Amino acid sequence: MTAPTPHTPPFRDRRLPFAKRIDDLLSRFTLDEKIGFLHQFTPAVERLGIAAFRTGQEALHGVAWMGPATVFPQAVGLGATWNTDLVRRIGEAVSKETRAMRARDDRVGLNVWSPTVNLLRHPLWGRGEEGYSEDPGLTSAIATAYTRGLRGDHPTYWRTAPVLKHWLAHNNETGRDVTSSSVRPRVLNEYDLRAFRATVEAGATAGVMPAYNLVNGRPNHVSPYLREHLRTWTDQDLLVCSDAGAPSNLVDSEHYFDTHEEATAAALLAGVDSFTDHGTDSSPITARVRGALDRGLLTEADLDTAVRRQLSVRFRLGEFDPEYDPYALTGDFDTPAHRALSQEAAEQAVVLLKNSAGLLPLAPDTRLAVVGLLADECKLDWYSGTLIHRSTPLEGIYERFGAQRVEFAEGVDRVLLKTSAGAFLHVPEADAGDEVRGAGGALDPALLAGRTDLPALTAGPAGTELALVDWGEGVLTLRAPDGRYLSVAEDGRVRASADQPGGWVVQETFRLEPHANGHLLRHIGTGHHVSVAADGVRVAEAGPEVFELIVVERGEDAVARVAAQADVVLVVAGNDPHINGRETEDRTTLALPAHQERLLRAARAANPSTVLALVSAYPYAVDPAELPAVLWTSHGGQAAGTALARMLAGDVSPAGRLPQTWYADDADLPDLLDYDVIGGRQTYLYFEGTPLFPFGHGLSYAAFSYADLATRTADGSLHVTFAVTNTGDMTADEVAQVYFRAVDPTVPRPRRELLAHGRVRLQPGERRELAFEVPLSAFDFWDVARDGWRREPGAYEVLASASSEDVRLRTTVVLDGEPAAPRPVLRRGLPAADFDEQSGVAIVDRTKSSGDAVTAAEGGSGELLYRDCDFGDGVTEVTVTVAGEGTVEVSPAGGAVSAVLTSKAAGSDPYDYRTLTARIVAEGVRDVRIGLRGPLRLAHVGFSG
Questions:
Q1: Peptide bond into 115 cis (omega under 30)
Q2: Which of 309, 384, 671, 847 has the smallest C-beta neighbourhood within 10 Å, fewest atoms?
Q3: Integer angstrom CA distances of residue 97 from 78, 319, 409, 426
Q4: Crossing angle of helices 555-563/594-606, nearest 10°?
Q5: Which positions are catalytic?
Q6: Other CB atoms within 10 Å distance of the CB of residue 635
Q7: What is the pLDDT of residues 227-268, one digit of tens each?
Q8: Which of the 8 DSSP states describes residue 323?
Q9: φ, ψ dihedrals at 806, nearest 5°
Q10: Is 307 helix (H, G, I), strand (E, B) or coil?
Q11: By the 8 A CB rule, do 10 and 16 touch?
């Protein structure tokens, strides 16, 4: 007899659509199995042959945390390329390496948490290196390209499943889990949501990750915007993964809910599908879900919704059809093509900011002095992989110009530390090997411990000369002669053990604190001082050592010595991505650290032909007046040095463009927590001052002319054409940019706004006509009077530009639209958050689940303006919906206060709203001013009579 063919369950039947297969599989899970799916680390369901799964694999500019991989330039550097085709190819390479790495290490996940779509609104944000641009259109264009590369081009199966970070309005590390971003409706729709929306609508996004912060008083992890906006932009199931520890924050730090059961239920109902909390231990989350079910806060159907979304991603990744998965055998890893692509990206990311008298490119026989703290560094950030290949600026210049023509001075201060007993700190000889932090991979690199296999420092008659660097604000690193940094491990001992500063809590930074006739040396990571004992040097809460700092050589002296002997000096300055500006830590200033300013001044004094190369994750406010040439690049990955050297030599012409405004001074910046880009006149869109270097700026070794700008409207789009000609004598890329501005707007509109751009390579003398098609909806703004999008009819100037300030051609188009209409306050009243202008007001949550209200910032006094309110034939009564204690003053026509309504709170519940009514007289169309006095919340103002 022939054995019967085993029945194939529907969820294994690839002939069925994914939705039906998911329905079948979901019906087979027990309640406990469904609960298990809600944690980041989902256990296997062995009885059904379902493998374990984890959400989350960092892949911002290469596969991160899991050991060696190709490292591309930082995200802000990719943004500086303005090249969507390049970024798509990088996404492809990263996803191929993800697949290849997973084939040999199943810790590597296919649900990649990348890209970061947060806008670079404020240059002091610690995580600015992770974003692409301050402009939502450019950000979404680059992010869409990257996600398309990550996804792959198969119509059914995905190579990896990208999740966008971090939803929403997240630009501060200071108090990031307890601060609220006050985002008015225009800013929400025109700025913060826009970058996410265009990327999601492009169809290559598997989900999003909410940010740690609150928006308008409500944590992002319980945001109604997930439902009201995100899930309306696509028909695909989107997987929402929490940020690490954020579900617990809802109770522990934000105190938004009283219990974790309530918080977990609220997050799940808001749309969070996968909870990243307590590392690999799922038991706290699963216990909270069970508790929420027991209390009736959740139903099994609620769990089904979340589990379905995860399964949708897993089916798309080919997990249930391995024999048909077109990416299953992908093995591309560290290929020649990937190495070349990394170099191409690094070259395209270089931005030439200034080039007086044609100092660059350098002649082949130039004698170079290469100096600076970043000159012989290839820095990695928190979201980097481990380098397989490495090229520092110095190494690249040695290779390109010849080592015999190059002199080098790092510019560190070389010091000895002498104890109060007259002994010196000494680094014992040891074979440190070539161990690199994180080379073995780690699901959570924050848990990587420092080395304890090396001897601790001692004190004795023979001191070790240490390389001291002040990275700004007194934050120091100390490096031993063998290149290892002084670090502190869990046993508290100080060793020369780290290849670079790094880790979630950096253990390689110190601070010298004046004390008596010397200094205490405080270890910043532990907060303890360094002490010297018979068994070695350690950090301790008591018995700090008082050191005398003996400077053997100042960095500027070494720099001046080599600079004076060179034809040209290259000063390589910038930041260490783990110090003074990173995740968990915002910067405090735009200024270059004083140590690096000293080096720059010394080089310039010794040799006027000084080029400043800024290698950094952020903009700096530097004075370029006395420098003939200045350039910037992000930390450029494994090929950064080669790329920089080729650009200096003229092998390639620079064509990177700034993805964010470079401000001249800290005084030009808004408060870090001021998210109102319109009212605060922020970014190139609204900034009215003079930037150090404007958005979109970048020079070339060639020259380009623009001609023949023409526009026409057809089929709901504006078509823009113009010609660009390379009038220089070398092949070069030009980044042509199209902006617009409303000529006579009735509400504040951007000074100019990017509509489109294109990066093109032109031979000398080559002319090319560029064509752009822009939907007319790009000219719309969010009209708070009608709670929707509106295009003002009238004239718009269209600008063909080389940057946001370098306009080459302009023309005016007249567009149809909808004329402004007064606010229908008799029908709709005034939703409090729909103001036109405000002063001293913050937007807060009307309830924990939905809606907005406003309150005077810090419980003081605030003013609101609502323009063009239509009272018709007249009203005689005003009604306000308020919670808490305070006073509302209502003043139609901007005159004397017409109505004063006082709320006397009976309790402490900020959501206990009541309605107050007063007499008022107003007719016709007029502005309304509202004053808030005290800590009350105002949700709505109505008029009748």
A1: yes
A2: 671
A3: 18, 18, 37, 43
A4: 30
A5: 243
A6: 28
A7: 999 999 999 999 999 999 999 999 999 999 999 999 999 999
A8: T
A9: -100, 80
A10: helix
A11: yes
